[in-house]
Amino acid sequence: MSGIEIAVSTVIFALRHDTSTDRTSLWMPLVRRVREPYEGSWALPGGPVREDEDLSDTARRTLSETTALSPTYLEQLYTFGHVARAPQPVPGPRVISVVYWALVRPEEAERSIEDENVAWRAADDPPALAFDHSTIVEYALWRLRTKMEYSRIAQAFLGETFTLAQLRQVYEVVLQRTLDPANFRRQVEASGAVEPTGDYLVGGRHRPPKLYRHREASDLADNGPLTRL
Amino acid sequence: MSGIEIAVSTVIFALRHDTSTDRTSLWMPLVRRVREPYEGSWALPGGPVREDEDLSDTARRTLSETTALSPTYLEQLYTFGHVARAPQPVPGPRVISVVYWALVRPEEAERSIEDENVAWRAADDPPALAFDHSTIVEYALWRLRTKMEYSRIAQAFLGETFTLAQLRQVYEVVLQRTLDPANFRRQVEASGAVEPTGDYLVGGRHRPPKLYRHREASDLADNGPLTRL
């Protein structure tokens, strides 16, 4: 038996609209550590893998216990296992963390707990985090931005139906740049990633925008052969 | 201390030319298990993580010990941690495997050991493997094919310089379909992924083909913030 423990941590991203600044940005929930090491510091939700538990089940259980979130998009991201994972040496056994990431829709994020030990913070300007969790968040942001360029992952932030302006906003917030609406429309329509529902966004506008939905029935978190397991 | 052990396994892919059939295909080295469970079965190279060892170092050490390979392209692929990972229940503690994959160039593959306990086999038609290693190989093949569509990963199978015909052959072998040479040339030139060296392939041909090299100085296994660690 080796002296290495295995844990799961999860990075959760959601878009949040701040009504005071009228700005939408990428946010994530953090949990305050209630024991040493790093007692009182903010960290990613997670915990040790139980002997009878699949890795994704550990992710779901610890997310549910700490934040009450049960995200539809949950995917394994990367396993962090450097011998010295924390800026300061940590007492106790070495821990290897299998990191998952979850992208949640606005209505899912609203159901999250927020109290003195759970807080949502801006993902691109987080507080100092325990262990190597700041590196994990930086890596997750990089993966999200990279993956948005070649996959349909942006749709995971939206509900069943959405306008092209809403989809463009996801790209603009995550990539942190403004996109030309006409170019964006052409690219999305050419990609075939979404299809019109035939309905329009309800509202008092003169020309209500078209609603779209995800084109493919398949899971947005496409893991090929693993999805079929 | 949990009753879970952590190990690393590695999928290695290389292109091999079979002179008897004049066919090039994707091959991988397998090692024969010399102890229970699955004694005598073929499996991926790997072994337990030592307490003082980073995960990628376990991959490099176990590859070197079993196959004498030290690949330049080595990247973490996925962590397999289902509670029941093997078709048959396995005695002993539960094992979670962090799987790496390595893509090796022909001249690297030629330096590999081959003996009664190490054999290269066709990746798309492997023998039955121990544990869930058949699933792992299937997943690695799917990732390789998917990633070839949007990255420069194909270049990892080639040396420092190569012709466009050699690069096209990598795509054809991995994707298992024939590609139009003129279309392929246009797409590669438009992508900017390679650049001409100014030299030509040495040989007795009337019009020797141009040699190309990787465009970017960066590692082909781009892990963003992790590469800089």
Question: How does this model look, in words?
Answer:
Two copies of one chain form a homodimer. The longest helix of chain A is centred in the middle third of the chain and has 16 residues, at 133-148. Chain A has helices spanning 55-67, 106-110, 133-148, 164-175, 181-191, and strands at 4-18, 23-32, 42-43, 46-48, 73-80, 94-103, 118-122, 161-162, 194-200, 210-214. In chain A, strands 1, 2, 3, 4, 5, 6 and 7 form a seven-stranded mixed beta sheet that branches. Chain A has 229 residues and is an alpha+beta fold. Chain A folds into two domains: 4-148, Alpha-Beta Complex (Nucleoside Triphosphate Pyrophosphohydrolase), CATH 3.90.79.10; 153-214, Winged helix-like DNA-binding domain superfamily/Winged helix DNA-binding domain (Arc Repressor Mutant, subunit A, Orthogonal Bundle). Chain A binds chain B through residues 1-6, 48-55, 76, 78-79, 81-83, 93-94, 96, 98, 135, 138-139, 142-143, 146, 149-150, 223-226, 229, and chain B through 1-6, 48-55, 76, 78-79, 81-83, 93-94, 96, 98, 135, 138-139, 142-143, 146, 149-150, 223-226, 229.
Summarize the structure.
Two copies of one chain form a homodimer. With 229 residues, chain A is of the alpha+beta class.
> What is the N-to-C succession of helices and strands of chain A?
EEEEHEEHEHEHHEE
CATH architecture of the largest domain in chain A: Alpha-Beta Complex
Number of domains of chain A: 2
Give the largest interface: A-B, 37 and 37 residues
**Cα end-to-end separation of chain A:** 29 Å
CATH superfamily of the largest domain in chain A: Nucleoside Triphosphate Pyrophosphohydrolase
Percent range of helical residues of chain A: 10-25%
Shape of chain A: elongated
The Cα radius of gyration of chain A reads 19 Å
Number of helices of chain A: 5
Which structural class fits the helix and strand makeup of chain A? alpha+beta
Largest sheet of chain A: 7 strands, mixed
**Averaged pLDDT of chain A:** 89
